[in-house]
Specification:
single chain, Rossmann fold, two-stranded antiparallel ribbon, hydrolase, AB_hydrolase_1, AB_hydrolase_fold, Pyrimidine utilization protein D
């Protein structure tokens, strides 16, 4: 399905789970979760099938962000963190979604965090999965620990903007498999990425421009909604130590940090049962059903 949010922009979305359920003689509203994928330049299929289980306790809405997946491609001048964050608000307005839980994974978590900072009264909760990047040396050290000196060297060249075929091939062959610490995760990651409708131009724009433009630590004092942070102890990019620093920086009371010992990047994919249990508790405990 697609929805028009203005300026000729149409965003693709998919839905699992009903908004209303029976409650005796009434209908009660279930919580709504809006999902923001990572990449950037990937699409919502990164969440499937693991997040489908959330439809058992919430309405789940998957969104392909501007420039990605099945949404309008547009151009680099519209691929900004602020535009993507405001798109999340415009999308909710277009579908009349009130106070959803906003869940972002990887770079989608940067978008979710910025949306919650820019619009602090719009969300019932914020879930950030594998979001906060460690500093450069911290990430390089993790790649070396997981894949040896060669992985460190390839990551350094790739992040420096080397677009050569040799570096790109080495990144996909040596470094990308290290994102997963799950048994069989390499093959599963390969299959998952084949399903994605990538916009490689967005990913390249992220590496060369956007990655250094966004400061995830700025504006945290404006973050007001309940927040759950998920991190994998074996994540080479959104490191567990960065997640701990981030949780410590948040000043509001209801902040939950969960570091999963054997998980890599993307806790919902790496440890789906554990992540789903945590998500269910977070979403349901904060929901006050309204009768319709």
């Amino acid at each position: 399905m697609r929805v028009h949010i203005g300026d000729g922009v149409r965003l693709y979305f998919d839905v699992e789970g009903a908004q209303l359920e029976t409650d005796g003689p009434d209908m009660a509203e279930r919580p709504t979760i809006v999902l923001l994928h990572g990449g950037p330049g990937a699409d919502h299929t990164l969440f499937k099938p693991e997040l489908s289980a959330a439809a058992g306790f919430a309405q789940v809405i998957y969104l392909d962000q501007r420039g990605s997946g099945r949404s309008v491609r547009c151009g680099p001048h519209q691929w900004t963190w602020e535009r993507w964050a405001d798109d999340a608000i415009d999308f909710c307005d277009a579908l009349e979604i009130e106070r959803p839980v906003l869940l972002g994974s990887s770079s989608g978590g940067w978008v979710a965090l910025l949306a919650a900072i820019r619009h602090p009264d719009r969300f019932a909760g914020l879930v950030l999965d594998s979001v906060m990047p460690g500093d450069t040396y911290e990430r390089l050290d993790m790649f070396e620990r997981l894949g040896g000196p060669e992985a460190r060297d390839v990551a350094l060249r790739y992040w420096a903007g080397d677009n050569g075929e040799e570096t790109t091939d080495a990144w996909e062959r040596i470094c990308l498999p290290l994102y997963s610490h799950r048994p069989g995760g390499d093959a599963a990651t390969h299959d998952r990425l084949r399903r994605v409708r990538w916009n490689d131009d967005v990913l390249d724009h992220f590496r060369t421009v956007l990655a250094r433009e966004f400061d995830p630590w700025r504006g945290l004092e404006r973050l007001e909604c309940r927040t759950m942070i998920l991190a994998g102890e074996q994540d080479p990019v959104a490191t567990a130590s960065a997640a701990r620093r981030f949780a410590h920086r948040l000043s509001h009371a209801d902040v939950r940090l969960h570091v999963v010992a054997e998980a890599g990047h993307g806790v919902f994919r790496e440890s789906p049962k554990r992540a789903m249990d945590l998500l269910r508790d977070f979403v349901v405990s904060g929901h006050v059903p309204r009768l319709h």
